[in-house]
Structure to design on (130 residues):
């Protein structure tokens, strides 16, 4: 599963860049609650992505060795997202709820954009080889 680790490393780098942009937005704009919500949601999104990659790697190792595998940790990922929403609901003056929800979806957006860009670059590379 080295490809999975490479993908996760690239996704992690992109998400950390996004969080850095959000931190700059929090520091230099008057939209503090929006950017704090985006930061909270994106951190939870990164945690969920990391957890899924870790569980997928463990599943691959269990499948190759013929062992049983319990779960992919769906409940943990759901609970972390619910916890982030609960934090935003408890402190609405600090975290914007809509921003937290958008932040939770950040890893999914990064994965889709990365996939599309890789497909475009692969097709462009194939054309150049001809």
């Amino acid at each position: 599963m080295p490809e999975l680790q490479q993908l996760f490393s690239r996704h992690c780098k992109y998400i950390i860049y996004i969080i850095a942009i959000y931190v700059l937005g929090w520091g230099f704009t008057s939209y503090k609650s929006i950017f704090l919500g985006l930061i909270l949601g994106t951190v939870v999104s990164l945690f969920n992505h990391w957890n899924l990659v870790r569980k997928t790697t463990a599943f691959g190792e269990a499948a190759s060795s013929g062992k049983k595998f319990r779960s992919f940790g769906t409940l943990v990922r759901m609970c972390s997202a619910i916890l982030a929403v609960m934090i935003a609901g408890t402190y609405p003056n600090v975290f914007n709820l809509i921003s937290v929800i958008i932040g939770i979806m950040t890893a999914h957006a990064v994965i889709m954009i990365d996939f599309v860009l890789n497909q475009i670059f692969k097709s462009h590379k194939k054309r150049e080889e001809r």
Remarks:
- DSSP finds five helices and no strands in the chain.
- The chain has a mean pLDDT of 93.
- Helices lie at 2-28, 32-65, 74-90, 97-104, 106-129.
- Residues 12-122 form one domain.
